[in-house]
């Protein structure tokens, strides 16, 4: 049933973006497609692909634990002779072999929200925020929320995911030597319900914890719901990256305090632009574009331009 759903998703996107005079075919490989981040990045990808006339084949590995499945899917896209593959690798250290396969076949690999596609092979191009920079911005947010220090519970993201590990590494480096102390640190699958349970466990063990860190808004929304249910909105601060619709709503309710908002729509669209340039020979090989995020608090929500951050309300891939 899962395979059937994945296949149907791929066919649906192909039909939407394709045309009799298609400029070519782009493969898209994601570790998972559910969640606000992936919806927004796919909106950017699909919109730009339609504008440029590309067909899309979008494949979902079904979770960060399914690294082998994602590698197999990328290999399949290469054998289908797509013009390029846009990829968010679950764990870049596992993708060296398939990166070499793509290179031999002349199929560019473009990182989407990841500046690398394989640990030992440079990407043909990439569009991403700096995940280390995100971690440092989140540390600045933690310091702003807790200027006198405090305790932090960490919802670290999927185990082995480059983006999550890099964010947290730089967050830890940035708070080293301050009075901010991590008292709990848990990596889990990227799922709001799981994040909610994890946050509830942290609140039970540390009922007066000052701040919950979420790797992205899947984890952040789970943390905010746990804080809300415990009646601790405003007491236990909630900090994370990515501003989805529910994250915004929870911030308006006072249960989310600081978000480093990436621009997934811009990232997805520019990844397709970069792929198009590589296909046509107009873009330099190895270009890495960095899309800077913006810090958001409740007081700045009203002035925020959401066009590069989120898909239109109600849009689904």
Order of helices and strands: HEHEHEHEEHEHEHEHEHEHEE
Distance linking N and C termini: 19 Å
Please state the CA-atom Rg, rounded to the nearest Å: 19 Å
Percent of residues in beta strands: 15-25%
**Largest sheet features:** 6 strands, parallel
Number of strand elements: 12
Q: Total number of helical segments?
A: 10
Low-confidence stretches: 1-20
The class by helix and strand makeup works out as alpha/beta
- Silhouette: elongated
Output mean pLDDT.
92
Q: Order of strands side by side in the largest beta sheet?
A: 2-1-3-4-5-11
Classify the helix fraction into a percent range: 40-55%
Descriptive keywords:
six-stranded mixed β-sheet, 317 residues, elongated, 10 helices, disordered N terminus, alpha/beta, six-stranded parallel β-sheet, single chain, 12 strands
